[in-house]
Write a structure and sequence with these properties.
The protein is α+β, with helices and mostly antiparallel strands and about 230 residues long. The protein has one domain. It contains 7 helices and 4 strands, in the order ββαββαααααα. It has a 4-stranded antiparallel β-sheet with strand order 2-1-3-4, with helices on one face. The longest helix has 21 residues, at about 135-155. The radius of gyration is 18 Å and the shape is globular. The termini are far apart.
Length: about 230
Amino acid sequence: MYQVEYKFRFGNHDCTDYVIKIDPETMTNQVPIPDKIPYWARLSFRQCKCCTLTEDQSPYCPIATNIVRLVETFKHHASYDKCEVTCQVPERMYVRKTDVQTGLFSVYGLINATSTCPIMGFFKPMARFHLPFASLEETVTRTAAYYLLGQYFKQKRGNPVDMELKLLDEYIEKVALVDEGIVERLRDVTEKDADRNAFTMLHSMAKMLSMGINEKLEDYESLFAE
């Protein structure tokens, strides 16, 4: 089992731990399903515009179901509450003094990627090498690199490939719609804004990626001059 552990430490010495266990074969998280799933996790409740699921296939939104516990844990936190966030992956540990929304931005990004949401399937390989607190620059290069690696494996299987990243922009646009959809689900659920703002950050990141990833990669072309 591939495991990622997050710890949130606050100035009043409160500490919140959250462990994400992931099946290494399918890269699907094993977050326990809550005994009582809230109404806002139903698939039909403010369903994402790009969702390809039906209620027959999945009565509940896969992402919403996975985040119920975290939303309940952090619904009393404001986005700007200061904390120290530790992320332990099998290979190393990351520590950052930041605010709650930035810590949740990383946690929710990993949960999204390892959910059974069909739109988020592309990010499963990236989740295997999870990088918390990733900047826009890191996300641009990682996204493009993993996409191209996926095209390499498609070519090995004899399938058509997209080496010009033409389909990647379209895909990221759908990811942005999913993040936007989760924000809408949480709009009337949380008392404060840490959870909503974390997904707003994910949405903003996806929107920036979708606005022409090829153009953004040009900034790094000089690094490969040799």
